[in-house]
Structure formats: structure tokens, C-alpha cells
Amino acid sequence: MNTTLFLAQFWGWMLVILGVIFLMKKPSTLTAIFRLEADKTFVATSGYISMILGLITVLLHNIWIWTFPLVLVTILGWVALIKGVLRIGFPQATHQMAVSLEHKPGFIRVLLVIMIVLGVWILWAASQTAGM
Fold this sequence. Notes:
single chain, 132 residues, mainly alpha, 6 helices, globular
């Protein structure tokens, strides 16, 4: 299995699994999850995890060829890396963003559906690439 296929499957499944888990939660549970953003340990830990996953993806797959899933894997890696750096370096800003989303459960659910669809599409594109 090549690096692109592995990372496409990794990010695809990650998006689908997390999207489905959070979509099945009650709105009150999602609100409680957003309150975790006030916990500095949670923010720092999740920031380091995001940064590590993003950095690994970027180091292994920094390919800017505009074919799918090649470029999407690269973009997801950069997004994870930047998200991790922002969470570690600017925890107050990420807290403010969470506070602004806390009372918008409908918008959050739309984002989760988009996340699931994107994950399924990445998995489909990876399977098409693997079949070639």
C-alpha cells in the first residue's frame, strides 16, 4: 500500500467515524463537549495530537498535484498541522471560536454531515485509485 492510499484511508475513516459519533450525540452533549475548550489541558493535548498527525501527513505527503485524493490528503494534513499550532499557541482564540459555536447545534450538525460526506468521498476516491 502506498503512502497516498494509506493516508487517504486514514483521513477518510477518521472523518467518517468522528462525524458519525458526534452526529449521534444529543445537542446537550455537543454543548458539553464545547465546554471542554475551557480546559487548558484538553486544548493543549488535543493541539499536540492534531499537530503530530498533521506534521506526519505533511512530511510523508506534501504533494500539490491537483488530482484527488492526492491534493485532499495534503490539504487535510496542513489543516491538522495549522489547527494544532493554533490550539497550542493561541488557546484563547480557539476557546472563543468554540464559545461562538456552542449555541448553534444546527450549524454543527450541517458541518458534521459535510465531514461524513467528505470522508466517504475520500474513501471512494482512494478505492478508485487503488483499483488502477
